[in-house]
Amino acid sequence: MKRLALTTIYSVVLSSLLLSACGSAANSNKQTNEAGEVHNADHGHHQTASGDLQEKTASLSVLPTFLEGATPTVQTAYKTAATVTDILPYIPCYCGCGESAGHMSNLNCFIAKQNDDGSVIWDDHGTRCGVCIEIAVTAAAMKASGIEAERIRQIIDETYKEGYAKATQTELPPAS
């Protein structure tokens, strides 16, 4: 219980910092394809139909250039999300991104896809959303405290069930 209390306190403090988190990326050399998607030739950015900016990097350890100029809190959230790719696919997001951007879990707010070759397609949705960041950082803190994935999911669902947007359609974690 003491760990859960510390995790909760950590989450509340970090959440207050994150709610003001905001980031943006400059798109100076845009090209639009037939599907209406925008590509930025300067940084290899790809803008989805929902408006999210995506960028491919070689691995989880190489952060996207759209984080340049982002607050340290946002950068830390992306680094943190990259360390819990085993948990976040089972954690829903409650910001409305399931309906607006087609996200399936909180992971998609940061990472659209991990390729077989180790490369990563990052998504900038999390740069503009305190709810996304709060959920990812809280889940990571709970995992670091030794809380099982099933319990993390229960806590997140209970915390965000009222006063937030509809949850993403996220699969449950495997039974431990």
DSSP strand content = 5-15%
Helix content: 25-40%
Report the major sheet: 6 strands, antiparallel
Q: Which shape, going by the Cα principal axes?
A: globular
Strand order of the largest sheet: 1-2-3-4-6-5
Arithmetic mean of pLDDT: 82
Brief sketch in words of this structure:
The protein has about 180 residues and is α+β, with helices and mostly antiparallel strands.
Walkthrough of the structure:
The protein has 176 residues and is of the alpha+beta class. It is 34% helix and 12% strand. It is built from 5 helices and 6 strands. It has helices spanning 2-18, 72-83, 97-100, 130-144, 149-160, and strands at 30-32, 38-40, 45-47, 53-57, 111-114, 120-123. Strands 1-2-3-4-6-5 form a 6-stranded antiparallel beta sheet, with no helix packed on it. The longest helix is centred in the first third of the chain and has 17 residues, at 2-18. The two termini are 20 Å apart.
Key descriptive features of the protein:
single chain, 176 residues, alpha+beta, 5 helices, 6 strands, globular
Furnish the topology, listing elements before pairings.
Layout: H1 2-18, E1 30-32, E2 38-40, E3 45-47, E4 53-57, H2 72-83, H3 97-100, E5 111-114, E6 120-123, H4 130-144, H5 149-160
Antiparallel strand pairs: 1-2, 2-3, 3-4, 4-6, 5-6
